[in-house]
Every structure is written in C-alpha cells, then in structure tokens.
C-alpha cells in the first residue's frame, strides 16, 4: 500500500514541465546525456517520472499491462502522481477536488478537500461508492456517457448565483478507506450517475466541517 507522503514532494509545477539544463558549460557531459537518452525504449520503461529532471519522457502504448509485477509498480507510480496533481490543483486554484482510486485488489484510495469529505466519510457516500463498485461490468463497447437530462452542471459554468464563494483551504490527503472495500468495476451507468448527482446536490445545502477524528497526514505540503 503506497504512502501518500510520496505523492507530495516539493517539486514545483515549473520543474515538472521544463527540463533542467546542465548549466556548467561542460558540453561533453551534455553530449553523453543525449546519447544515454537515445537508448531504445522498452515496455519496462512505462512510466514518465516527473522527478527525473532533464531526462526525456518516453511515450508508451496505452494498453493493459499483462505482467502483474509491472502492473503493480505502474499503479503505485501513477496513483501517486494523480494524487499529487489533485492536491496541487486544489491549492493552486482554490477549487474543491474529490479523487477516488480503487486498486484491482479492492483497496480504495481517496483525496478530498474539506467540503467534499462527507462524500467519502459519511455512510451515504460510502454506500454509494460500494454500490458502484459492486455493480456488474458494463458490456464491451458500452457507452458510459450520461444522458443530457441527467447530466451534472459543468464545473466551467458559473455557479456563483447559487453557491457561496469557496475559501482557499488546504486539502487533506487520505489513505485507503478499507482494505477490501469492494472490487473495482469500470464505468458508471446513467442511474448510478443520477444517484450520485442527487446526493451531491443534497450536500450543497449545508456546510461541513472535517470530522474531528479524521486522520490528517502530516507529510503534505503547506
């Protein structure tokens, strides 16, 4: 089980997006690094590690990884990365974020900002998540989109007319909900999406404070 502390290092977005220059004037070192990057890309090099400064990112084919060991490693890396991105999004833009990741063994990992914590801490939210995970697999090629009549408002649409301003509050990363919380299933049918939408709208009517007993990880960024 990955520690969420690994997902909140001190790397800034600028460092993630821009390659590091050598900066010492030694062209020989630069050339050697270029030769090293030119090595053939293999299937084992399947993760673009943001923390590896000037190294060039390797593109991989997006398909299911059949090797169990490599699949586990990829899951740990990618989960850590998406948790970190969710945290950065909430801090940089002051938005409310809810991220839920379920491993193939049924471990549930969540990241929530304070206002959305009831969705994963209260019984109603947990029951809804478990119902979605226990639902049968959708048929191959099924359309998982939600009907327009049941669609939730886009986050890009202005909501200031019916929602109070959102304060910029730090996010609280959370670990697994429960080991064996439910087996993951892909997709959500329109009925489940509508139920989730109705639940979210019901929660908008009241302000929630984070539960006092909620464990907060001390390793996240301030």
TrEMBL record:
It is found in: Nucleus. GO terms for molecular function: cis-regulatory region sequence-specific DNA binding; DNA-binding transcription factor activity, RNA polymerase II-specific; protein dimerization activity. It comes from the Eukaryota. Residues 55-115 form the MADS-box domain. InterPro entries: MADS-box/MEF2_TF (IPR050142), SRF-like_MADS-box (IPR033897), TF_MADSbox (IPR002100), TF_MADSbox_sf (IPR036879). One of its GO terms (cellular component) is nucleus. Keywords: DNA-binding, Nucleus, Transcription, Transcription regulation. Its main location: nucleus. Residues 194-206, 213-222 have a biased composition (Polar residues). Pfam families: SRF-TF (PF00319). Residues 1-56, 134-222 are annotated as: Disordered. One of its GO terms (biological process) is positive regulation of transcription by RNA polymerase II. This is Transcription factor of morphogenesis MCM1.
